[in-house]
From TrEMBL:
Residues in the signal sequence: 1-32
GO cellular-component term (any): extracellular space
Keyword Zinc: no
Keyword Secreted annotated: yes
Gene Ontology terms for molecular function: cytokine activity
Main location: secreted
Compartment list: Secreted
InterPro entries associated with the record: Cystine-knot_cytokine, IL-17_chr, IL-17_fam
Protein name, as recorded: Interleukin-17F
Amino acid sequence: MSCTNTLGRPIMCHVTLLLFILGVSTTPSVHGLDLHHLSKGCPPPRGLNLNQPIKVTLNISGQSQALGKDISKRSLAPWDYSFDMDNNRFPSMIAEAKCRYAHCLDAEGNLDLDVNTVPIKQEILVLRREMKGCTPSFKLEKKMVTVGCTCVRPEVKEQQQ
């Protein structure tokens, strides 16, 4: 970096460099932030903490019932969990079940080829974050989630002659 004026004389440029360093060090980190508003020509939100919790009150009747931690392992149609992550959705992380085997287990834990496993699906409500112009908004959406697996007899299809 050359710190000279048009006459070739040295000038004080360390103030400019110091201001640049100060500006860079005070710029907030953009890791994990939604920057779509910048590409749409929207001004960056001021004073908005995107990691700030949003309070939503849902009045849902009934009590949730906790299942045993090992129910997925004790089932005759055992399943494993994977996690679906989406930072523009609440909840951002949703556990999804996947049947471990195509067939069910018998009482001794051996595969029973006469009985099939099928996923149990449940529709849930999630909040989807969207940008409407330069304003963030939230939309209620339905999402189908596999919550477990169960055993069924195989379908028998009759052949037409």
